[in-house]
Amino acid sequence: MICDRSPSTHRLAICALALNLCTAGAPAHAAAPGSTFRRPLPAAIEQFVQADLANRPAPCQVLFVGSSSIARWKSLASDLAPLPVINRGFDGAHIESFNQWFDQVVAPYRPRVIVFYAGENDVAAGKPVESVVADFDAFMARKSEALRQVPVYFISLKPSKLRFEQFAQQSQVNDAIRARAAERADLHYIDVVAPMLEDGKPGDLFVADNLHLSAQGYEIWTRAVRKALLPHADAGAETCQQQERQ
Prior knowledge:
CATH class: Alpha Beta
Radius of gyration: 23 Å
Distance between the termini: 47 Å
Number of domains: 1
Shape: globular
């Protein structure tokens, strides 16, 4: 709307009212570039952002992202030593969480490797297998755009006593992502299903809720992740450092 610059007080009042009505309906995302507008972040993401503002992690570390199985891996740093790690897991996360908040909890760290565990909550929430896999495809697309050939290691959805009725759907997700890993140089599949089963059922590897891993469960994960990462650790670090110097 173009406002007449007449000195008339009446005309100025009408103009101001019209402008207010126009801007009142404008969506929040229409804020101008460089403005101070920022939509509220979930508490867990906000906590990560504030921690990074206080102490920005060094680049070229191994970034772990995922749901509570990552968030509650309290011994991660010692279990993966001497690899330097960043833990950005949070309770309740879905795969789409890391698409929506990619710019907050993935891209800024410029990692050498991403270890990814999510999708279990997606299946538990009733999402179709095709939607879960499509969300992961979207994550890989965002990763490729922002971080190029940084490798992603997908930890298979784990079998648990609490959610064993969902094992068939979990297996379909795992199979789809395993197939993608066979076709992509930047995607690797880490199987934790086989070592967590005893006679075809989940072993005694959980805390009291029969969902989250006990120390024994994390021992299995540690062996599987170390076996996948360590053979490529030096090359991954060198590649990342070269990219940082460019």
